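Severity: low
Component: inverse-folding endpoint
Summary: output formatting inconsistent between runs
Steps to reproduce: submit the following structure tokens with default settings.
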């Protein structure tokens, strides 16, 4: 072989070797980013859907379900943010996905944030059924999460990022209402001791006022290649699922439609490099939905409301993107803590009542939903009686991202934003696990669906402890 040919061959080998990639990284300081998505739509039908008290089966999908990943790297720190089209994902599945990601891509488990969108038209994301049977879909979901992060990591390139926010207040309504005492229905425990009612109904003359606030901010993290080519956008909005999806159909709800709209506009077959990826995470929306009880909108066509909400979020995103100033010299940081919390325990009287309800086979002879809550009551009477939940905070430049594994009330997210030591902060709920609703102690006193034993599992002061810990983590990474 001639000396010139040998020199060319050495260059080719060098350029495609891991050492060459590391050398390129060393020559390109600052932020690197990559994004990818993996299809997690069920592969076999029908599938059970979660999110309602009655069993529902889906026979097809209206739109694909995805795991959407964004990987960021700066200096020696790498972060992975994953948003999954699911109602919720149990911690054991997320932990397994993180273990595989750390093993495959060397991203520390503490630097991986996985959250669910809270669509109510997706399959269960837990490891076992009640009879112990392993759910095949759970393995499909785990593989999708790992694949999305792996591909996003492989797509890393010199990048820049910016963040901003828009106000979208007109699609948000606190769903917990103070009502006249005579309008309080019997709860699943056979009493009328609630002060507020969830989803009290349209044109209800007993309505007094909402029991909590809404958060109109739509937060946006935008990531571009250094040449301005869009890599990813992560949105965050404090709104429950929207729904309006016909029976028998799986869907990513407005979260998926938002991503479709952004990807259709910001991606193109002619673009160079990996496809653009959009993701929409759920903010603190445990008590907020899209139903205006004071001024009902009238009946909507299937998919109409979710398209309207997604369209507004996408339109405002495009407006904000035009105003952002991107930076590549951004540092990254992450902090995680395991916070021990007690699970709520039923009283002996509640256990006895639950047993009596379950012994009655006729649902008409017990309060509405009594059988479901009776089962949950007995489950909470059994160990374990506590668990250390995962709390997390990430920093991207001067942007803070908090992660809480609950359906978190909006006032908690507002407090974190107000007290955060970082200039801009938003919270992703249903992140790194699922432990039911997270009301404040004041909301517990008011009662209602989100505070009931079973719907709510964590100790009554959990929100105070979680908020304090999140603020400590944000201060730690500032």
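Observed output (run 2 of 3):
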């Amino acid at each position: 072989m001639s000396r010139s040919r040998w020199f060319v061959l050495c260059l080719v080998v060098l350029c495609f070797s891991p050492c060459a990639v590391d050398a390129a990284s060393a020559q390109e300081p600052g932020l690197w980013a990559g994004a990818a998505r993996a299809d997690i739509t069920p592969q076999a039908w029908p599938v059970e859907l979660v999110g309602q008290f009655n069993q529902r089966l889906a026979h097809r999908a209206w739109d694909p379900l995805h795991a959407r990943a964004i990987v960021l790297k700066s200096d020696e720190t790498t972060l992975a943010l994953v948003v999954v089209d699911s109602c919720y994902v149990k911690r054991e599945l997320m932990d397994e996905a993180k273990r595989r990601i750390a093993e495959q891509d060397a991203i520390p488990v503490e630097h991986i944030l996985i959250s669910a969108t809270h669509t109510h038209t997706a399959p269960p994301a837990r490891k076992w059924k009640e009879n112990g049977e392993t759910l095949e879909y759970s393995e499909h979901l785990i593989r999708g999460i790992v694949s999305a992060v792996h591909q996003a990591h492989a797509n890393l390139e010199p990048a820049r990022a910016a963040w901003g926010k828009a106000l979208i207040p007109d699609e948000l309504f606190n769903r917990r209402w103070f009502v006249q005492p005579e309008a309080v229905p019997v709860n699943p425990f056979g009493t009328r001791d609630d002060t507020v009612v969830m989803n009290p109904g349209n044109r209800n003359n007993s309505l007094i006022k909402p029991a909590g606030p809404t958060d109109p901010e739509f937060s946006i993290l935008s990531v571009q290649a250094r040449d301005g080519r869009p890599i990813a956008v992560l949105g965050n909005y404090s709104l429950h699922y929207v729904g309006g999806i016909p029976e028998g159909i799986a869907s990513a709800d407005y979260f998926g439609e938002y991503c479709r709209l952004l990807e259709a506009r910001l991606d193109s077959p002619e673009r160079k490099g990996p496809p653009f990826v959009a993701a929409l995470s759920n903010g603190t929306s445990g008590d907020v939905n899209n139903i205006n009880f004071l001024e009902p909108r009238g009946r909507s066509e299937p998919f109409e409301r979710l398209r309207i909400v997604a369209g507004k979020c996408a339109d405002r995103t495009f407006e904000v993107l035009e105003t952002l100033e991107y930076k590549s010299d951004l540092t990254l940081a992450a902090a995680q803590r395991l916070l021990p919390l007690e699970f709520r325990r039923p009283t002996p009287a509640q256990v006895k009542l639950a047993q009596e309800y379950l012994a009655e086979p006729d649902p008409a002879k017990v309060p509405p939903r009594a059988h479901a809550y009776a089962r949950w009551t007995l489950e909470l009477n059994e160990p374990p009686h506590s668990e250390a939940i995962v709390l997390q905070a990430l920093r991207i430049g001067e942007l803070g991202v908090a992660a809480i594994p609950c359906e978190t009330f909006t006032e908690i997210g507002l407090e974190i934003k107000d007290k955060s030591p970082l200039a801009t902060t938003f919270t992703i709920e249903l992140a790194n696990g699922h432990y039911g609703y997270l009301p404040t102690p004041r909301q517990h006193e008011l009662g209602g669906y989100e505070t009931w034993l079973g719907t709510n599992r964590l100790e009554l002061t959990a929100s105070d402890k979680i908020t304090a810990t999140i603020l400590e983590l944000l201060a730690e990474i500032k």
